[in-house]
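Budget justification aside, the reviewers requested a transparent look at the raw inputs and outputs of the sequence design task funded under Objective 1. We therefore reproduce one unedited record. The lines immediately below are the structure tokens for a 413-residue chain.
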């Protein structure tokens, strides 16, 4: 059975490969996570007074910090579940950034900063709303308010990469409960080449919620290849994860290491999905030192191997090891996990690390000139009856990139 052809804007999204999620809003001033309004039972009037303190630094500073990671796009929370909008709601309410101490449209500033730094802006927007009374009392009126809000995002900020929705899991039922047909038609009217993504939540990882969706989500989930054979259109996917246990800034020391994130990024791309890693800026819009360091470390890895992440598509995966191969038009990228170092046995513990020959059984491409992407060292290889064997040399002492990538040129291209 044939696979549907991907539309160009979906191909462009897959080419981005790696993005950064930003959860930022009034809750950032409290440092209690993005759900604090609901879970910590904040009084509405007291919470609203946070607007008097909300005056973040220029968004260009945040965008430049994120760019160091090697990410090609940023998904920014324009309105989260607390109902506060970081954009000018144009009279829909006064619970927005222009009416806060900031006195300005933060989303406008973010989008302009992305364009200045050659980053693709994506706009997150909640569908669940704890603040708006119509959400509970007159849901049809609320959905009109939601569409009017999204229309602002679609018409006032120029071309955007996509809309990322979150919250439909809060109301379920028969039929088009959220009136998604109307919402997505509105987006296609103004932003025909924008990705439409609607988070299915932790209970329905990777499920397609509506035919107009362009990418399924795997929130904090492991990536698995999408089975497109029976789909009417080409659907891609995205794994979103946070560097810690929360999405908004919090008092949280359980932080993922660059090792874990590099492995997650690599494995996500081996399944053909994009990887979206979240940071929660502080109340002034700055990143804490740990977030900065993690993004910078990811960027160092991407400087060496980013070409494979952006250009490579799934081709081959081992049944007995983590190693896999991504393929581009003119190259194959060999991802190697747990590679050992050149070291005296008294200098370092290798554990379960390895080096030497590895066979890619069933690998059917003609390759030449295989070399490490980080230093250009040529690797010996040979064809076998069952595939391809490559002699992977160990790291030199003093280096460990977690996942090391070799590039092989494809013949007859």
């Amino acid at each position: 059975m044939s696979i549907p052809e991907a539309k160009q804007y979906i191909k462009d999204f897959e080419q981005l490969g790696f993005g950064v999620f930003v959860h930022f809003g009034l809750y950032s001033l409290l440092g209690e996570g993005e759900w604090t309004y609901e879970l910590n039972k904040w009084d509405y009037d007291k919470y609203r007074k946070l607007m008097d303190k909300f005056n973040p630094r220029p968004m260009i500073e945040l965008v430049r910090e994120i760019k160091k990671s090697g990410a090609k796009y940023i998904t920014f929370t324009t309105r989260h579940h607390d109902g506060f909008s970081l954009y000018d709601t144009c009279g829909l309410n006064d619970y927005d950034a222009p009416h806060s101490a900031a006195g300005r449209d933060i989303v406008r500033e973010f989008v302009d900063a992305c364009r200045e730094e050659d980053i693709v802006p994506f706009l997150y927007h909640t569908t669940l709303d704890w603040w708006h009374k119509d959400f509970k009392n007159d849901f049809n009126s609320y959905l009109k308010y939601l569409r009017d809000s999204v229309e602002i995002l679609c018409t006032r900020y120029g071309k955007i990469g996509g809309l990322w929705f979150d919250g439909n899991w809060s109301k379920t039922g028969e039929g088009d409960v959220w009136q998604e047909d109307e919402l997505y038609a509105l987006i296609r009217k103004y932003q025909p080449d924008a990705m439409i993504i609607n988070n299915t939540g932790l209970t329905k990882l990777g499920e397609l919620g509506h035919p107009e969706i362009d990418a399924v989500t795997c929130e904090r989930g492991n990536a698995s290849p999408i089975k497109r054979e029976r789909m009417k259109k080409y659907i891609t996917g995205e794994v979103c994860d946070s560097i810690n246990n929360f999405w908004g800034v919090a008092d949280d020391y359980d932080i993922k290491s660059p090792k874990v994130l590099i492995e997650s990024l690599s494995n996500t791309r081996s399944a053909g999905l994009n990887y979206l890693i979240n940071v929660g800026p502080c109340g002034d819009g700055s990143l804490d030192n740990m977030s900065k360091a993690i993004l910078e470390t990811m960027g160092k890895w991407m400087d060496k191997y980013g070409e494979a992440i952006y250009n490579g598509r799934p081709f081959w995966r081992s049944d007995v090891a983590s190693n896999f191969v991504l393929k581009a038009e003119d190259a194959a990228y060999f991802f190697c996990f747990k590679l050992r170092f050149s070291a005296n046995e008294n200098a370092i513990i290798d554990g379960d690390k390895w080096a030497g020959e590895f066979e890619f059984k069933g690998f059917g491409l003609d390759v030449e000139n295989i070399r490490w992407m980080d230093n250009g060292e040529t690797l010996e290889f040979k064809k076998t009856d069952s595939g391809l064997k490559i002699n992977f040399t160990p790291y030199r002492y003093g280096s460990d990139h977690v996942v090391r990538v070799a590039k092989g040129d494809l013949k007859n291209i």
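The CA atoms of residues 366 and 411 lie 6 Å apart. The longest strand covers residues 403-410. Computational costs for records of this kind are itemized in the attached budget.
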